Amino acid sequence: MIFDPTATLISLLILFGISAIIALSLNLEYGIAGVPNFGQALFVSVGAYAAGVTYTRLLPLLAGQPALDPCGATLGQALQLRSEIMRTMPLVGLANFGLTLLIAAAVGGLVGYLLSYPALRLKEEWYLAFVLLVAGETARIFARSWEPLICGSNGLSAIAQPFAWVGDVRTKSLLFAGLTLLIALLVYLFCERLARSPYGRMLKAVRENDAVSAGLGKSVSRARGQVMFIGSAIAAVGGVLFVMNTGFASANDYGVALTLDVWVMIVLGGLGNNRGALLGALVVTVLDRFTSVFAIQMNMLGLQFEFNYVRYILFGVLLLVMLRYRSQGLWPEPLRTTQAHSMVERKMKSEG
Amino acid sequence: MTLNLLMDSLVATLQVGSMYALMAVGLTLTFAVMRLPNFAHAELITVGAYAALMASLWFTQNPLLLGVIAFAVAAVAALLCHRAVYRPLQRLNPPIYIMILASFAVGLILRYLLFMLADGFELFDLRIAAPQTVLWQTSLLTVTSIFVWVTPTSIALVVALSLLLNRTSLGRQMRALADNATLARVIGIPVQRVHDVTWLLAGGLAGVGGALWGLNTFVNPLTGWLAILSVFAATVLGGMTSFVGAILGAYLVAFAENTVMQALNAWLGVSFALKPAIPFVIIMLVLLIRPQGLRTS
């Protein structure tokens, strides 16, 4: 195997950007607002399905071509049509990308809000954990059998990244990495601003003690519903980038194993700390790449053994070890004080 | 819908419902006594299925013995999970979500260990090799030996569990812990031992459920996962902490998945591809209409 350090680094950056977006969204939901989302894979998959729909319906429309059935008799032609458009019409490709992001965010947010609505109104709001886990699996089973989304269990290929028209392979992936990291940066800045705002403090109050927050006149269930909307929208944006990076939409990519990966990221990094989520995303991405390269090497040496299994076991053990011995994560949530708070503190100190 | 299809679907309801009941009471047990919605329950089911499968391939085909082996192996697996993961974690007094997350991780670890095992011995999609015969066939109804093994075994185990819970001092201690853990500690109930026994029982019942499932269809590392969504629906429908509720819920979910589904298909043309959505629909309806489920309080 020829090792190309630059290409490896670029692909690592892309994966880091995508993981960071998805981890930041879960950190917003659970780390900051305390809403347990055990169906993160579902919201990521919304992005993939949105891309599946736009690349087969919207893209030909934007390019002024008739949309062909992407799954049946015209499978090959439809595939050729969309790769042709992505290769030759940069503006159409970019417009389609922008619209896909918007659609994914809107649908993702709505799905997140609607799914969490019944459970968030109960006193035992951990029912939400059940609901989202079951919803995620049900959605995955559906996407595998319902053709209009991504051609059922066959999946949908040729979901090209928006810079597919650039000739040089290196430049092309560099541009996509830049775009992914830019979106990740925007998401980070958004989450950070949100967490520091009065709204963010209200969310943290809800997380720490919902009875007190409700007593202070905050609507706990509404706040949690809003957070599910925002977080799911962000996760769906991450899903769009995820599916464009692999170029192939398959329902099986969005199982519980993906959900666990995202939880490993935020627990490893530090629950409630956006920078921790970034750190966790980085560590998990590097570990993931490392184990998969290692697996390929071992298989090439003639060791017939599925190292992917070991990877999942390793990640599970890592999560349990963190929960047991360092539940605050590698980069714990910093104590945030407001100006008023520090003034009171100073005053109390000076008065003894 | 023809009478034939109706009878078949009712037999399926009884058979599948009994297996769901076995799995659901185990899940309810750990939740009621330990306050842990154990997401790894699916993998305990699969552990039992694999234990029975391997035993049936290598040394015995006696269904009763297979059930005992499945019970024992899954019970020990559950106890190990409790001692190695849940108990040390619970001492830190974490939020319930952290416990759920831990059980989620335990489930995936077990699942991929089973994948490794299945990979190593080529044990994918095999049926447990117990003899299958048609016992009784009329124009309306076919009853196989599998039905005779699955349904009475499940019902007998569920009855035994309710006797244990209601008639023995151990059961009384478990119920006391479920009702009020602090009070139970104060009056000197041996909490650790009761927890251990609870895990042994929950794991064992899940294991037998898995073995029966493997007799009925086939075994692969996702066997338990296929059943667990319906089992979650059954426990939510049963009200999470009620054993009677869980059992009723299990049969109701099975009824919806078999008989109701069959009727919807025959009269309204609803595709069978929608069947996997039934547990989800049930959970959503319960949460919207009657969150306490079948519990009376």
Explain how this protein is built.
The complex is a heterodimer of chains A (352) and B (297). Chain A has 352 residues and is mainly alpha-helical. Chain A has 14 helices and no strands. Chain A is 75% helix and 0% strand. With 297 residues, chain B is mostly helical. Chain B is built from eleven helices and two strands, in the order ααααββααααααα. In chain B, a hairpin with a 4-residue loop joins β1 and β2. In chain B, α1 packs antiparallel against α10 and α6 crosses α8. The chains are: A mainly alpha (352), B mainly alpha (297). At the A-B interface, α5, α11 and α13 of A face α3, α4, α9 and α11 of B.
Give the SSE layout.
The complex is a heterodimer of chains A (352) and B (297).
Chain A: H1 5-32, H2 40-62, H3 75-88, H4 90-120, H5 127-145, H6 147-150, H7 169-196, H8 198-208, H9 210-215, H10 220-246, H11 256-269, H12 274-300, H13 307-325, H14 339-350
Helix pairs in contact in A: 1-7, 1-10, 1-11, 1-12, 2-3, 2-4, 2-5, 2-10, 4-5, 4-10, 7-8, 11-12, 11-13
Chain B: H1 3-34, H2 41-58, H3 63-91, H4 96-121, E1 134-137, E2 142-144, H5 145-167, H6 169-179, H7 181-186, H8 191-216, H9 223-238, H10 243-268, H11 278-289
Helix pairs in contact in B: 1-5, 1-6, 1-8, 1-9, 1-10, 2-3, 2-4, 2-8, 2-9, 3-4, 3-8, 5-6, 5-8, 6-8, 9-10, 9-11
